[in-house]
Design a protein that fits this description.
Helix content is 8%, strand content 63%. By secondary structure, it is mainly β.
Length: 216
């Protein structure tokens, strides 16, 4: 009985693998940082990677993937707050955070008579590989200062991020794909501190993604 169970499981896995489909995705991000970082503007970035569609049953698929995903944001402080150890009456931060991201989505494919589309949702985990943070400061608009930091090594941002992804897409023919999604970060990734009292800012990632894809 045990051998029959193992053989059945192997055959089921093989069947799912046969019905799987690789795809490539490439597009742009509109990324922000939230929570305590109130005065923020979007940071335009990129998103490129691979997905693997595995048919579970009927129209339901499991879609793991691996992406290089640029997150971040632009932060403006005008309260006399100093970060990175400098005293300024105002400061502007432009953070570019490049993550290796692994989403694991559940996807529902709908094959209508006119066109095909899908909706998907699931968790993701990310690890920061490299990044650059530019800081500009001014004192009463008289003196200015600009410096660059390693985003993940100079008390700027944490490497690890995780959250929830959701979105939808449209298929053109058998291979082309146009999709949009949103990454909602749930981890506080900020290591930024106020110099005046040593408190840390809180910041979570939010990333709107639009991409083109091709399935093989």
């Amino acid at each position: 009985m045990r051998k029959i169970f193992i053989l059945t499981a192997v055959l089921a896995l093989f069947a799912n693998t046969v019905m799987a489909q690789f795809g490539v995705r490439a597009g742009i991000n509109i990324a922000t940082l939230g929570k305590d970082l109130d005065n923020t503007d979007p940071q335009i970035g990129y998103n490129v990677g691979l997905i693997y569609d595995i048919n579970l049953t009927g129209a339901l698929y499991l879609q793991p993937g691996v992406f290089l995903n640029m997150k971040g944001g632009k932060i403006e402080q005008k309260t006399g707050v100093a970060i990175y150890g400098e005293d300024f009456s105002s400061s502007e931060i432009n953070a570019k955070l490049n993550y290796l991201e692994i989403p694991i989505d559940f996807k529902l494919k709908v094959d209508a008579s006119i066109f095909k589309f899908d909706i998907f949702a699931g968790p993701f985990i990310s690890y920061g590989l490299f990044g650059k943070t530019e800081v500009e400061g001014s004192l009463l608009n008289l003196a200015t200062w600009k410096e660059e930091y390693n985003s993940f090594k100079d008390n700027g941002f944490k490497n690890f991020d995780w959250g929830f992804q959701f979105g939808a897409g449209w298929y053109y023919g058998e291979h082309l794909y146009i999709g949009a999604g949103y990454d909602l970060g749930l981890q506080n990734i900020s290591e930024l501190k106020e110099k005046l009292n040593g408190d840390k800012f809180k910041g979570t990632t939010g990333t709107f993604i639009v991409w083109l894809g091709y399935s093989f």
